[in-house]
Design brief:
209 residues, mainly alpha, 434 Repressor (Amino-terminal Domain)
């Protein structure tokens, strides 16, 4: 991909991460070693290709003294408001919702205050419980297109084949339609941040809290 076809702006977290790293005078490799990831992963974060998971966001927050969760997932407050509205509308307590979706009540409490961002499993469980797609309240940004689109496409296809599953099976596992997987593997489209998180969690590319 030529420079002229690259996006004009990168995600806020990508720009902030590079700025903070350079101000601190450390290389991508040094930052990676400090927070327990690979240098390649830091590179992809700074390009805006991948979104740091919750565990990595917390590590970055501790290292730089900046709340990366808020930067990475600015829509947490939107999700929090919708979650509380749906729970109240259903007339149940946080403890009852926590039991229904299989998480600790403190997680529900922190989700409703916006102090915590949900991982893929929790989003899916809540969506099934309330009968609505909770992902709609997580990310409304455009696809994070980059010159690594073909690399992402190959990685998804390779991981799927190594796992011995079809595009349909992968689609069912992460909650999308089979044609979506095809567009990702062909490089026609790049997964949105929350779907990259889902793929990372499913294939074990990056541990999440």
């Amino acid at each position: 991909m030529s420079d002229s076809t690259k996006p004009n702006t990168k995600p806020e977290y990508a720009k902030l991460l590079r700025t903070l790293r350079e101000e601190k005078g450390v290389t991508q490799a040094q930052l990676a070693g400090a927070i327990g990831v690979t240098a390649g992963m830091v590179l992809l974060w700074e390009r805006g290709t991948y979104v740091p998971g919750t565990k990595s966001a917390l590590a970055l927050s501790g290292y730089f003294g900046v709340d990366f969760e808020r930067v990475i997932r600015p829509n947490s407050s939107r999700f929090a408001g919708e979650l509380k509205r749906l729970r109240t509308q259903k007339g149940i307590y946080q403890t009852e919702l926590a039991d229904a979706v299989g998480v600790d009540v403190t997680i529900i409490s922190r989700l409703e205050t916006g102090e915590r961002s949900p991982n893929f499993k929790t989003i899916r469980a809540l969506s099934e419980f309330f009968g609505t797609d909770m992902r709609a309240f997580i990310d409304s940004e455009a696809d994070p297109v980059s010159d690594d689109r073909s690399e992402i496409a190959r990685k998804i296809k390779r991981a799927r084949l190594e796992k011995g599953i079809t595009q349909k099976q992968l689609a069912e596992a992460i909650g999308v339609m089979p044609p979506v997987i095809h567009t990702w593997e062909s490089g026609k489209h790049t997964p949105r941040p929350y779907m990259l998180a889902a793929l990372s969690e499913y294939f074990g590319w990056e541990p999440r809290c």
